[in-house]
Amino acid sequence: SQTIHQWPATLVQPVGSPLSLECTVEGTSNPNLYWYRQAAGRGLQLLFYSVGIGQISSEVPQNLSASRPQDRQFILSSKKLLLSDSGFYLCAWSVQGGNYNEQFFGPGTRLTVL
Amino acid sequence: GESVGLHLPTLSVQEGDNSIINCAYSNSASDYFIWYKQESGKGPQFIIDIRSNMDKRQGQRVTVLLNKTVKHLSLQIAATQPGDSAVYFCAERWDYGQNFVFGPGTRLSVLP
Questions:
Q1: pLDDT tens-digit profile, chain A (114 residues)
Q2: Chain A residues whose beta carbon lies within 8 Å of the beta carbon of residue B105
Q3: Chain-chain contact of A100 with B49 (C-beta, under 8 angstroms)
Q4: Shortest distance, CA A1 to any CA of chain B (angstroms)
Q5: Do the Cβ atoms of A65 and A78 come closer than 8 Å?
Q6: Could you write out the DSSP letters of every residue in A44-111?
Q7: Nearest Cα to B37, choosing from B110, B86, B78?
């Protein structure tokens, strides 16, 4: 069966510090991968998605970036965090191809920028 | 731009009653819809989906209804239980793409 992992689970960082969140998927090959951010009490905002290694599409201009160095690894980064970067970051995957494929979410990373 | 929204941000129901969570969408080109359940501090979990060529789909204790005429989606939960307490999101897929647009969510509280 497929599983998706995210770490760390929680993170407290000062403003201006760098960020690296990691997401890995097991049990599937060549998945679509996604990064979402969820502000407190709000819906999910798509940040990045990837259909393959090295292929990243950005949905929202910001100081965040994403990379996909391996097929089942997706990394969210920032060089300098802002207060507004606080939130719950969710990684998700879906099957590549097909017409009706739901997204499966990881457990999330709670980021607090102070 | 077009977006998904929810009529009720919070919903409280008595244990054992049926729950109905509503979602309005404005993109007539959306072809696929999903309901997710998110418990506190966790990632969203898939509940049920429906394609745009369907009006109704049933799962275990859940039913999703799609009314394309008024662009309305609903999730019905039968015999609501305390474990159903969570935030529920609807998501729509635009134009046969890989990406979904999520609504702001409805918090369901089950009263004992």
A1: 889 999 999 999 999 999 999 999 999 999 999 999 988 777 888 899 999 999 999 887 679 999 999 999 999 999 999 999 999 999 999 988 767 788 999 999 999 999
A2: 42-43
A3: yes
A4: 16
A5: yes
A6: EEEEEEEEETTEEEESS-SSEEEEEEETTEEEEEESS--GGG-EEEEEEEE-SSSS----EE---EEE
A7: B86
